[in-house]
Design a protein that fits this description.
TMEM64; TVP38/TMEM64 family membrane protein; transmembrane helix; five-stranded parallel β-sheet; 55% helix; Hypothetical Protein Ychn, Chain: A; 3 domains
């Protein structure tokens, strides 16, 4: 067994010191308030701005609340200087935490990350400064923890620093002015009412901005630009610079509907980690297609969030391209017709609970999917919850007995037409399945989630 190298020892020592410092800081965090900070800073004289920035940096690294410091900065230095000092301290502190995480554990995480964690990191790195800007404007995660987490990615340092500095400004300005307004109120300033109203207005803007940004991003994902397959064909025939991304599984790409010549096949579940294959299309038209438009719609939303602003949804999919809807596999003389198009979901809501494993003699799983297809064709909203042995239906790579219907293929087709599928998490564990084993589009569920579906349903059937 090889002994630890000096660099490893240094990293471990730094990590240990950081943990110790955080524990000590946490033990004394209740003593930090605006009044105490003001008293301490006023005693620093001309060095107060430098002391404030240094303390802000240390607080950011040690997980102390930055909002208290920002309020104190406004009360002591005023709205302009207070904002500047707070923003400088927060940016330097965030950068220090970022570099500590990268130095201590960045390489280790890069080597060890796999599965969903690797996919998540790849997605964040592909987004780069845009992701940093978004999480600074929309505080989904604790500020201090986020600084360390982003250090474990390969986002360039300059992008991280600039995006943090710019996008933390609205919040810093609002909280600084609030601290300034508080001091004005305490001193009975003649302009007290105007100052307080302006502070509240800035705070309202800072609080509303995250919702505005989230709404804008969601709109970009849902208000997807698209084109019909006939228009895509015309553009390809004219030799226009437009590429085609097919997000169906490989077996469907080579299956009955075929594929568009020259298209790139990247299944939806592999898209985050295979983004480099389409990086050259980030600023150029990219038509995204699947069987209909369900999987491709998700892919376009994902790509637009990652900066592929010319990602286009092929609205009628390969069904429109080939001019045939295809049909699910048949079982004996009683088959199930696929809907001609995705369900509008305007009819009744139906929840199907499948408890039996596929390919049993009773064919209950097959009959449940047949019913799902018929209900979707009637524009019903259909949901399937896989329970007990029924969770086996979610496994990709079915071994189909001779003469039986390919239920994996049928389930995939029905999801394209609007079927929602969840598999009970406990049942997945019993079947020794995890999310990597599941057919793309199947989600892990729970009894709480099933209860919600049942409550919303007009009809519940068990197979």
């Amino acid at each position: 067994m090889s002994s630890p190298r000096p660099a490893q020892i240094a990293r471990l020592a730094l990590f240990g010191l950081l943990v110790l410092a955080v524990v000590v800081a946490f033990a004394y965090r209740d003593r930090i308030d605006v009044a105490a900070l003001q008293l301490w800073l006023e005693g620093q004289g001309a060095a107060a701005p430098f002391a404030f920035v240094a303390f802000y940096v240390l607080a950011t690294v040690l997980f102390l609340p930055g909002s208290v410091l920002t309020l104190a900065g406004g009360a002591l230095f005023g709205p302009v200087a207070g904002t500047a000092y707070s923003l400088i301290g927060a940016t330097i502190g965030a950068t220090a935490a970022f570099l500590i995480a990268r130095h201590v554990a960045g390489d280790w995480v890069a080597r060890k990350a796999g599965g969903r964690l690797k996919t998540l990191i790849d997605g964040v790195e592909a987004e780069g400064w845009r992701f940093v800007a978004f999480v600074r404007l929309v505080p989904l995660f604790p500020f201090n923890l986020l600084n360390y987490a982003l250090g474990l990615t390969r986002i360039p340092l300059a992008h991280y620093v600039v995006a943090s500095l710019v996008c933390m400004f609205p919040g810093a300005l609002a909280y600084t002015y609030l601290g300034y307004a508080g001091r004005a109120a305490a001193e009975g300033s003649e302009n007290m009412i105007r100052i307080i109203l302006l502070a509240l207005a800035l705070l309202a803007v800072a609080l509303f901005l995250p919702k505005l940004i989230k709404r804008w991003r969601q709109g970009a994902a849902t208000g997807v630009a698209g084109l019909k397959s006939s228009e895509l064909k015309a553009r390809l025939d004219r030799g226009e610079d437009i590429a085609v991304l097919d997000v169906r599984p490989a077996k469907d790409y080579a299956g009955e509907l075929g594929h568009i010549p020259g298209s790139i096949n990247i299944p939806l579940d592999e898209l985050p980690k295979r983004l480099p294959e389409i990086e050259d299309r980030r600023e150029r038209p990219l038509a995204v297609i699947c069987r209909t438009n369900r999987q491709s719609g998700k892919a376009v939303g994902m790509l637009r969030d990652l900066g592929f602003k010319q990602a286009l949804l092929v609205e009628d999919g390969m069904v429109g391209w080939t001019g045939k809807a295809g049909a699910p596999a048949q079982s004996g003389a009683c088959g199930a017709a696929a809907p001609a198009q995705p369900s509008a979901g305007t009819g009744k809501t139906v929840t199907l609970i499948i408890q039996n494993a596929p390919y049993r003699g009773d064919n209950k799983a097959w009959h449940a999917l047949r019913f799902a297809g018929a209900a979707l064709a009637g524009d019903m909203k259909v949901r399937v919850h896989l329970l007990d042995d029924g969770a086996q239906l979610a496994r990709k790579g079915h071994v189909v007995p001779e003469g039986a219907a390919d239920l994996e293929k049928l389930l995939t087709q029905l999801m394209e037409f609007g079927l929602e599928v969840r598999a009970c998490g406990m049942a997945l564990n019993d079947c020794k399945l995890d999310e990597r084993d599941l057919i793309p589009g199947v989600q892990s569920g729970s009894m709480t989630a099933l209860a919600g579906w049942v409550k919303e349903s007009d009809l519940v059937l068990t197979f």
